[in-house]
Amino acid sequence: MDIAEVAKASGLPASTLRFYEEKGLIQSTGRNGLRRLFSANVIERLALISLGRSAGFSLDEIGEMFTPEGLDINRALLLAKADELDRTIEELAAMRDGLRHAAVCKAPNHFECPKFLRLLRIAGKNRFRQPNKLKENKLKRGVQKT
Amino acid sequence: MDIAEVAKASGLPASTLRFYEEKGLIQSTGRNGLRRLFSANVIERLALISLGRSAGFSLDEIGEMFTPEGLDINRALLLAKADELDRTIEELAAMRDGLRHAAVCKAPNHFECPKFLRLLRIAGKNRFRQPNKLKENKLKRGVQKT
DNA sequence: CCTTGACTTAAAGTCGACTTTAGCTTGTAT
DNA sequence: ATACAAGCTAAAGTCGACTTTAAGTCAAGG
Q1: What is the rounded distance in angstroms from the CA atom of residue A144 to the CA atom of residue B95?
Q2: CA distance A59 to B63
Q3: Distance (Å, whole) CA B48 – CA B43
Q4: B75 CA to chain A: closest CA distance, Å?
Q5: Is B106 helix (H, G, I), strand (E, B) or coil?
Q6: pLDDT at B19 over 90
Q7: What pLDDT, in 10s, does the model give residues B28-87?
Q8: Is the CB of residue A119 less than 8 Å from the CB of residue A95?
Q9: Which positions in chain B touch A71 (Cβ < 8 Å)?
Q10: What band does A69 get if pLDDT is binned at 50, 70 and 90?
């Protein structure tokens, strides 16, 4: 299949496919002139990559999970990520509760509110970040070059 | 207090404090020569900012919550973030379960495993990202300019 | 008075995952 | 045979939140 077909089947733009190939995450099976040719199983591989990304793996980490023959799941790494997710989930849950409290708390100064102070303590422990432009990108991507 | 004191009290590097001031998130009360002077309440403000970051707010969003007089918590925004966190937590939990399953699943091809396929479906819905270099940065920061 | 170390600024650099651009090349349809 | 849409490459740009760098200022201690 050519790159456009892969793009359509995987939902990823061609630029991303080229980028992934350059990174060694997928391979093309050959060329027809200049044009890359892919075998159908690249679709599964891309699904795996998307999955990994969703689970919080970096592209490099995902790359390390693949062996020449195919995917070689590193079980220890999976379990470590799962544990990491557990910790993240706990922190996010605490934050969520704190936010809901803050929204109704009527203490004039939040620093006098014990719940708020607890929240502050939790927050101090860790910093994580989330992007906030993902949907926009998805939308743009869908609309691109109509 | 001068910037070094604020840095120490807040745990943030001076460069970050200047950056936040430039962004309008904090203000200095004046100067002693070139040097910024801060009033003590900037510490609380910084705690609030760190809290917001931990809860997933962007600096711009945090900025919008402050009014000239101080902080003016936008309750609707807080609740919306809390709901967003709920959704994120659900997805992360599904991912975590999927990872744990994948680590023990012995199906030769994961695409034949229904649990795995369900995971794939969930992953397809959303993409979120997490950084992976935060601790390193923190460590480096502690060691800097010994 | 002079050194010095903490502070200042503006501008550039970093990180990860891509996207965009500019300028070519080519398979395919007419 | 020729046009042209679709592919190609290398390089630069983007986003957010900072950090780093280079070059300059200056208050305070000796």
Answers
A1: 30
A2: 32
A3: 9
A4: 5
A5: coil
A6: yes
A7: 999 999 999 999 999 999 999 999 998 889 999 999 888 766 666 778 888 988 999 999
A8: yes
A9: 110
A10: low
Name the nearest CA neighbour of B123 among B98, B89, B140, B86: B98
| Cα dihedral A99, A104, A109, A112 sign | negative
Q: What is the pLDDT of residue A9?
A: 96
Statement: the CB of A70 is under 7 Å from strand C: no
B65 vs chain A: nearest CA distance in angstroms?
A: 13
User: Rounded distance, CA B37 to CA B49, Å?
Assistant: 19
Residue closest to B24 by CA, chosen among B73, B74, B64? B64
Q: What's the pLDDT at A128?
A: 58
A139 in contact with B at a CB cutoff of 8 Å?
no
A88: which chain B residues are within 8 Å (Cβ-Cβ)?
A: 92, 130
Give the pLDDT band (50/70/90) at residue A77.
Answer: confident
- Of the CA atoms within 13 Å of residue A61, those in its CB half-sphere come to 19
Say which nucleotide is closest to residue A131, CA to C1' distance.
D16
Quick check: B65 contacting A, CB < 8 Å? no
Fill in the amino acid letter for A104.
V
Neighbours of A92 (CB within 10 A): 21
pLDDT tens-digit series, residues A101-144: 888 887 778 888 998 888 888 887 665 555 433 333 343 433 43
